Amino acid sequence: MVIDSPPVRRRNLIGLTPLIDVVFILLVFFMLASSFLDWRSIALSLPGEGGEPSSDTPPLVVRIASDGVLTLDGENMELAELERRLSTLLGEDPARAVIIRPADDVSLQRIVQVVDRLSAAGGSNMTLNREGR
C-alpha cells in the first residue's frame, strides 16, 4: 500500500546579494556625502589677548546691525564696499586691528560671511566682540 504524503515544502532562502549591495551603496553614499578634509577655520583673537597693540593707529570697528546693515567706523556700506575699503586701509597698515561687533540677534551665518570677507581683504588681526561690551 502506498500512502501519498504531502510534498515537503522547502523554505525560500533569503539571498545575501541584495543585502550586500544595499550595504555597499550606503557605504559609498556616506563616504561621498561627508568630507572630513575641508575644515576651514577663522582665526580670531579674544579681547585682552595679545598684550601690546601691534599698531599705533586706532582699530577699525565694523558693526553688524540686527537688520544686516554694516557700518565701518560709523559709515553705512554694503559688504563688497566694506571689503574694498578695508583692503585699501589694511594695505597701508597690515597689522591694524579690526573689531567686529555684531548685534545680539545677528545670525552666525552673517557673522561668518562678514569675517570671511574681511579675511579676504587682508585682515589678520580680527577680534569678535559683542555689541555693548
Please characterize this protein's 3D structure.
- This protein is α/β, with parallel strands linked by helices and 133 residues long.
- It is 34% helix and 14% strand.
- A hairpin with a 5-residue loop joins strand 1 and strand 2 (70-72).
- Helix 2 (79-92) crosses helix 3.
- The protein starts with 15 loop residues before the first helix and ends in a 5-residue tail after the last strand.
Distance between the termini: 103 Å
Mean pLDDT: 79
Q: Output the number of helix runs.
A: 3
Q: Assign an overall shape.
A: rod-shaped
Q: If you compute it from the alpha carbons, what radius of gyration comes out, rounded to the nearest whole angstrom?
A: 30 Å
Structural class: alpha/beta
Number of strands: 5
CATH A-level architecture of one domain: 2-Layer Sandwich
Order of helices and strands: HEEEHEHE
Q: Order of strands side by side in the largest beta sheet? A: 3-2-1-4-5
Tell me the name of the CATH class of one domain: Alpha Beta
Which fold name fills CATH's third level, the topology of one domain? Nucleotidyltransferase, domain 5
Helix content: 25-40%
